[in-house]
Amino acid sequence: PSTSKILLDAPVLAITRCFVEASKKDEFDAVFKAAVFHLNAYTAPFSACGAWRIDKEGEDEEFVLFSGWNQIQDHIAFGESEASEEFGKLKALMKDADGKHVHVEKWE
After folding, report:
1. Average pLDDT, the chain
2. 32 phi and psi, to 5 degrees?
3. CA dihedral (34, 22, 48, 100) positive or negative
4. SS3 track for the chain
5. What is the pLDDT of residues 34-48, one digit of tens each?
6. Which of 2, 32, 36, 101 has the fewest CB atoms within 10 Å around its CB?
7. 58-95: per-residue pLDDT in tens?
8. 11: cis peptide before it, omega within 30°?
């Protein structure tokens, strides 16, 4: 949304790599597009976005999700909330996932 701050404005950036079988890529896309609203509502005023990695390794597809948070605990709270249930449907479509948090500092 145009009212969202860009991801790099967030104090914490979550980077999640989602490994998906090629045959489930379209289904994953559809579920993500339907569920990202719930994630964006939780990350506000920051946003979340994701895309398919084009320089993938191996046969599986890799979707990389970026989401901005005030603190890591906010991300954990989302995972425990009812709002994450729709987003949780993606887990059934993944073979594996790897997530990291990065503290963002601005250099002047």
Report:
1. 87
2. -60, -50
3. positive
4. CCCCCCHHHCCEEEEEEEEECHHHHHHHHHHHHHHHHHHHHHHCCCCEEEEECCCCCCCCEEEEEEEEECCHHHHHHHHCCCCHHHHHCCHHHCCEEEEEEEECCCCC
5. 888 888 888 888 888
6. 2
7. 889 999 999 999 999 999 998 888 878 877 889 899 99
8. no
Q: How far is CA 75 from CA 30, 95, 106, in A?
A: 23, 22, 21
Residue 62's nearest CA partner among 74, 70, 50, 73 is 50
Task: Report the phi/psi class of residue 58: left, alpha or beta, with left for phi > 0 and alpha for psi in -120 to 50.
Answer: left
Amino acid at 2: S
pLDDT at 4: 53
